[in-house]
Every structure is written in structure tokens, then in C-alpha cells.
Amino acid sequence: MNGQADHDAWVELSDLPTGQRVELSNSQGQHWTGTVVPRHDFSGDRVLQLKLESGYNIGVHIEPTFRFRLLGPVGAGAAPPTRPAARAATDGGDPWIALLTTGGTIASRVDYETGGVRPVKEEREILDFFPELESSGRVRIVPVFDRLSEDLVPDDWRVLAEKVVATFAAGARGVVVAHGTDTLGFTAAALSFLLVDLPGPVVLVGAQRSPDRPSSDGSSNLRAAVEVAHDSRIGEVVVVMHGGPSDDRFAIHRGTWVRKMHSSRRDAFRSRNGAPLGVVEGGKVLLHLPVRPPSKGPARMDGPIDTHAALLWFYPGLAPERASRFVEGCRGVVLAGTGLGHVGADHLPWIRAATERGVVVAMTTQCLEGNVEPYVYSTGRELLRAGVLYLGDLLPETAYAKMLWALGHAPDAAGVGRLLTQDRAGEYHDRHDSRDTA
Amino acid sequence: MKAGLEVHQQLAVGKLFCACPAELTETVTDSFARSLRAAGGESGTVDVAAALQASRGLLYRYEAGPSSCLVEMDEEPPHPLNEEALDTALTLALLLHAHPVDEVEVMRKIVVDGSNTTGFQRTALIAVDGELELGGRRYSIPTICLEEDAARKIRESPGEVTYRLDRLGIPLVEVATGPEIVSGQEAREVAEEIGALLRATKRARRGIGTVREDVNVSIEGGHRIEVKGVQELRMIQEYVEREAARQKLLLEVRDELRRRNAGVPPVDPLDVTELFRAIVSGPFSGAGRGGQVVLALGLTGFAGLLRSPPRSEERLGRELADQARSVGLRGLVHSDELPAYGVSEAIVAALRDRLSSGEMDAFVLVTDHTRERARAALNRVARRARAAVEGIPGETRDPLPDGRTRYSRPLPGRDRMYPETDIPPIAIRADRLDRLRAQLPERPAELEARLARSHGIPIEVVQQIVYGDLLEPFEQLASRGHAPGLVARLLTQDLPAVPRAGPDAPLFEPSLDTLSAMLAAIEAGRLAKEGVPSILAALASGASTVEVAIERAGLSGFSRDDLVSLIRRVVQANSAMVRTRGDAAFSPLMGDVMREVRGRRDGQEISETLRAEIARVRAESGS
Q1: What pLDDT does B45 receive?
Q2: DSSP per-residue letters across B233-246
Q3: Which residue out of A110, A120, A128, A209 would a mutagenesis test of the B interface target, given it has the greatest number of B Cβ atoms within 10 Å?
Q4: ipTM of the complex
């Protein structure tokens, strides 16, 4: 047995590879037999994690006087996954859908020997996992990034847009983009402004539950997204996610209208200021509102974007000097004001100074629904006189994405302003139906 | 015989991973539907497509109620582990001399039947290597776990199963014993002792379905069988004994089958529908009316071994029938029971001819609307019959109300578990264990001794209170000042003896206030303790208060004076007997008086008064 009196067992135990079977004992005669598994991030000091014969993991605090014995060769662990058969080349005429991946995990395998969760990245493996995706036609997987969505930056939107254009050029009839849910709304809005003359749908989709779980919503969301991507009536950017807690209904949201409104629910994504464009139910795509039709193409990216912009959420206690410093160097600022589009009166001076300098300052509401209106209260009128543009019922995030696009397309504040207030991708609602609720 | 137990006890500390109350409900406020992908992430060898096929099309419907939350709907990550539940599990570990782990890791255990909205059960190993001492024997307690209970199955129809979320997330403490139990009686005693220890923590949930036991039974030469989900503790002994008897019979059958070189020929089942077309009643009448097929399977060498041997209730035939039931058929008919069911000798002869079945051979018949289902049933029957020649196949069985068990499914393979990364590991520190040790509840034996001593009640009665789960009402009523002996008798004898209004009538569960009022009436002299059964019966049939019950039972209005005049009258009417028999007249006269008084006066008072009257009369008459 290893472990001399003056030897600290932890030194060697902490170095054992995952899958090594080991027998431990302490000075009170207690023993444990198990397999070393990867250390948990939040495990304590000198704690060895073992998987016992029963399958349960436990943490054992290793005193220096522990003794241990290695058992057998390092666990064979999982057999390597069987290689899926090679896929036949796509027949020329068959319509195909592209699935662009930006990071996060679409599918994963759990190794119950170690408890490790391994993401499945290879196209053939992914499609073997979801054979139903190809029920209406072939799917080709195109990796674009491998990043968490909270790590994406506006330049990534531009790269993604270019990839979408290239994919349509290669013959895809529709494009699905698998995306982390955290900033999916931003990307959807940005792509709505960047992409023109789309010959088919661009469908963003994500998952609220991790793919290792049997209850993951990712697979059903993906299937619904692919159905929408096949739909020849649609020529715009949409988001498809669960429309409720059940797995039988998926909402189709216009990319500029949608926002993640819950941190964890499957139906977190909601269209604001009106209903979704439609639903996928029973495998069928049902459209309830007019959609932008496909164009003859070719798809184009209408760049560039200018990232010298800021999104500022107003709140009581925000010092005007802080706000003014925050927007230094920006050509455009989107404010998320209170109510009908207000900020404290003490912010008027820096706002006026900015607009006089040629900075485009635009107003949205942090209520996340309803129009901003400058004429109703004096604060709004003051802000209007100070040169602030009021952007109707645009979400703050959508206005920010549009600002980046508009700043790249006009050299002066007036030009930018015109582009902002003019509907480009169906982002404004001209009416708010009495039957629509949040 | 060897048996082991796994006791699952629900705790009354709120749910394990959310702040919802642990309450079952009949109110459904909402429902939603999900499908679960069984192949949520198998490593390596699993055929993903096959697993997908298996889960395809099966819809799980979940019912939410007034206390359901987003965690139970799998719409929100779990909250941190309920600390009170963990304390309870650790307390139990200390009571059982088990070693708590240094760090608790919550695991996800994959479940495939839809009973958890996440597709897995959260479970954690809390302590290992404990020991239970009972009646001079030692039983090992290898593991104590803490886990969440599953959603409640409400109904099932083709392609859809409905569960209710109310039970999902209720904490369960699971105590497993080693296979050291050697009799049904021992199994019951060990289960009772573990139950008493769990209740000693004062955190156990009460009521039907709050405790479930899984029992593993094997006999020498046999195989481990798991009887899963026993809810009535008092039936454990019967399940264990019957299971041992069943296995014993199966081994005898195996030996005979081997002697006969028995087997199941590897041929397809035979379609014999036309032989049954003339049958007009019984299970095979469908073949006559059309629409049902009848298939037959030959079992070489099985003749006489499908029915029960003399003096036994077990039989191989039932095991084969349960296999047919497991695919949805009503059962099967085997040759040992024929002729019967409208199947005449002539048909039997024709079948034997078709199957080339000799005197030592048997056959089974199934009938169904669907040929595929009938074939699937016979495939399972064939497999089970072949296994009968090997011995006893390991399996999981369901407990039935009559003490039998029925095949449920194969023994599960190793549990598929991986870490629940949404919950960080929980270090079990020395100061926590010190705190729990300092407030360790009394063990049942200590508790019994204390109660017997302080209340002056016999130990057997105290044991009934402790093991009959009557401790709380007993202590509550005793603390209100009622005589402990009276309370004990009320709870252990009088209440259980109240006859049920009908087989489906709700259980009579009077409130503590009602019982206290009744005891107060006795103490005030308005009711004799002999009248308790009548009062309880009146309350059980709807009397709203004790006073109303006293009226209804006709036990009111019998004063001391009334008693004295009655006794005078009775003694007077029997003066001749009193003269001739003297003191021996007491017994028959006591009977007469008691019949009249009917529990309205205290028995001791009656007996003293009667004796006094008899003595007085004798003195007067000088006899």
C-alpha cells in the first residue's frame, strides 16, 4: 500500500487521472472503492471526487495519513463512439437547409463512467442525433463561431451576416442559425437590418435547457426552426422558440420585435408590442400576420456598421456627468428612458450639448412595450427641443442594433436620423391591437 | 432465504429543491405536454436511433396545481438543497451509526418513464456503513440517500401518460439494508424499526403513500427478485414469505423440467383460430364472432407443471400469464387447465395434434384482436418458459393487495447517473454534525422505556403507541391532562375497533379536540369509559360533537340515583337467588345490571354499588 507516515497522500491522489480505480482508507479504518472523476469547480480543498460502484459520486476529504491502492488499469471508460456512416452526397435538385452554429452545444453525450458531458460537434454525429431534422430535406451544418452568446460583439454580427449571404449563394433555400439565448435578440435585430433581398428565411434558434437532459427543448426547437426554414412564404429574419411550456407549439417572432423576457423558461422569447408572426404546430407552419416575402435574390449584406454607439439605461441616481462621460467618443446614443421616453431634467444639458456636436441621440422606453411620445409631458417636449429622436415602439436593443447600422450608412446626424425613423425591416408597428397582451 | 429492504420515507420539511409546500392536491390549475428524448446523452455504444424510436410519440402530460412552481415544471434551475432535509438525513445517519460523506454531490439519475419533468431524478448519497441493532441481531445499513420524489401518475392511455406535479420534489430519505434478513417476520420488524427511527426525527410525513418499501428476496439457488413499491408495512412479511414460497416452487419446477429434458421448440406460434370458431362464450368467443385470432405455443415436457401443486398457491402458469399481460393481453390459457373456458376435449385433441404435443407436453393459448400483439405475448411467454428450465430469472415485481406479487419488468441495469452541476457540492462539516449529535432524538427503545416509566403504562402498550405511529396524538392528549392509561387504551384499542361504515367509507379520523372532549366527559362523570365504543361509533356515523354522540348513543341521563334504584330493583327481583347463592349471585346480577346501564356509568362504580346492595340485602334478611 502507498502512503508512508511522512508522505501526504493528497500529493499523489490529486494527480490521478480520471477513470483510475482506487481503494482508499483512513486511519479509522474506513474505506472507499471507486473511480476518480473530474473535480467539481466548487469542491473543497483536498477533496477527491470518487464515483462509487453504485454510481453515486461523493467527495472524500483526504488527510495526509490516508492510504490508497490503485486497482486495475485505467478504466476503459466509454467505448469510442461508433463512427456514423458517411453521408451520401446531396442530390443536385433537392432543396437543402443550412444550419449555422455559433457556439454553445446542440447535442452532447454523457459518459456515465466519469460523469463528463462531451459536446457533439461533428456534422454527421449531430444529424445522427436528430434524424428527424432531415424529414423535409437535407441539412448541412456550417460552423461559424464557437463562443457563448454573451461573448459576441457587433463585428460578429457582420461576420455572421456575410456567412448567411454566402450560404444562400451556395444554394441553401433557408438558413437556420443556432445561437445562445442570452444575446439572440440582439443578433436577430442586427441581421434584420444587415440582410437584404433574402430569397428565403433566416431562422435564429436556441435552447433554454442544456442538451444533456432528456427534457432539453433544443431538439424540438431545432426541428421547428428547420420547418420554418423550408417555408417559401418567408423572406425575413425570425426567431423560433417554444411558445409556451408544452413541446407542441413554437412561436415565430420577427427578429426586430423579439426579446428574451425570462431567464430560464422555455417560452422566454416574446414578441413585444404585438403578436408573433405565427406558430409551428403539429409540424405545420401557420402564419397569422403578413410576413416579408422572399425576394428573387441574391441575398446581400448591406454593411458597414459603425460601433461608436452606446445604449444607456436611465435610472434615478444616474449622475449627468457619469452619463456624459459614458457616451464620450460615440456618434450615436440610444437612451432607454422611463415611461413615454423621459430622463431627469438634469440630463438635458449634456444631451443638448451632444446633439449640437452632431451626436445622434435616440429615445426608447425601458417599459419594453408601448410607444415613446415626446408631446404628452413637458419632459418629452424638452428632450425633443434638445434634439432627441423618438423611436416609436422600438425595443432598446433593436434601436441599438439599428443605430449601428444607420451610423454606417449616413455621414451626418440628419441622415442617420432619417434612417432611424424610417421603417426598414418591418420593425415598427403602425398599430397596437387591443387583443394583444404581453 | 435472504432479503434486504430499501425504505423510502417522505419528509415534511417542504420540497427538496424549491420553496413549495409538500402537499398533494386534487385541484388542477393548468397542464402542459412534453416529450422526453431518452437518448439524452448516452456514451458510446447506445444505439441512439433505437432509443429515439422508443421515446418517439410518447407524450407526457403534466398537471400543475395551486402550489406548483417553475422548478417543478423544469422551467427554472433548482434552488439550493433544503437544509432541513439534509439535517434530517444526517440525523438518521447518526442514529444508525453511519458515516456521513465529507462532501455531498447531488447526482442526476436518468429516469425513462416521464415521472420527472427534467428526465432525471436528483439524488445524493449522504452516509455509508451504518448499522441497525434489533433483537440482538445486527443489520448493515450500507447507504442512506436523500432524493426527490417523482410526479404522481394519474392516468395512462395509448401514447400518453399524465402525471401530477404535486408530489414531484418532496424529499425522500432512502435507507437500504444489507441482505441479512432471513424471514418475513424479520423483514417486518426491521421495516418497523426503521420506520420508528424515521418518525423519531419528527420530520416524517404522515399518511398513505408517504412510506414505500422495496424488498429484495432470494432463496438458495434462486435469484434476487425486487418487489417494488410496498406501501403497507404490515404486509411486508406476507410478501417476503410468499415470494420465498414462489421461488421455492419455481426451483422444484426447474428440477423436474430438467429431468424431463423440457424446452420450448424454436418455432413460430401456430395460428389455430379456426379450431375456435364454434365457441360462443368465454374468452375464445371472439374467434367465433370474428376479429380475434388465437395463437398456440407448444411447451415440450411442461405437462402438469403449469398448475399449482397440491397445498400450494404458486404456479408457473401464472408467471407465463403475467408475461402475456405485460404486453396488454388479459392473460392466457394453458393446457393444464383444459378442458375449460368452452374449450372441449375435442378441441384439445385437435390442438395436440396440430402441435405434435404428447402426453408430457403442454401448450398455451392466447387470443387478441391484433396478431402482432398476440405474437409479442407468446414471444415473452417462450422466453419466460425457457428461463424456467434455467431457474428463476431476476426481475422486478409489483406488490398486489392480496399479498401476491406480479411480474413488472426486468431488473434495472446499473443506474445512469452523472453530476447535477446546477447544485454545488455540499461540505458536511464537523460543527454541523456536532450540533445534530447534541439534539439527537430518542431512539424507539429509549422512548418506550421513558414513556412506560413516566406514565405507568405497560411496555407492550407503549410499543403499540410507538410502532403504531400514535406517539404524537398520545403526547398531545396526555399533555392536556388526560390520564395516560385512558389515552393509551383509546388510541390502541378503542379507535382501531370502530367498525367502518362501508368498504369505501372514508377512514374515521376524529380530531384531537373531539377525543379530548370525550375524555373530559369521562373525567367529569358524564360518561363511563365503557361507553367509549358507542360514542366513537356515533361520531363515526356523523354525530357532530361528543354531546350529540352521547345523546345519540342513548348514554346520557343516567345519574347515580338512577343507578342505585336500578340496582335495588334488580336485587329485589332476584332476592331468592341472592338468599340461596349469597356472594355468587354477584356475577349474573352484574351482567343484568350492565346490560341495562349500557355504559352510562363506570363499571367499577356499578360493581361496588351492586356488591354493597347485595351485602345490605343479605344482612337485612339475615342470610
Answers
A1: 37
A2: GGGHHHHHHHHHHH
A3: A110
A4: 0.90
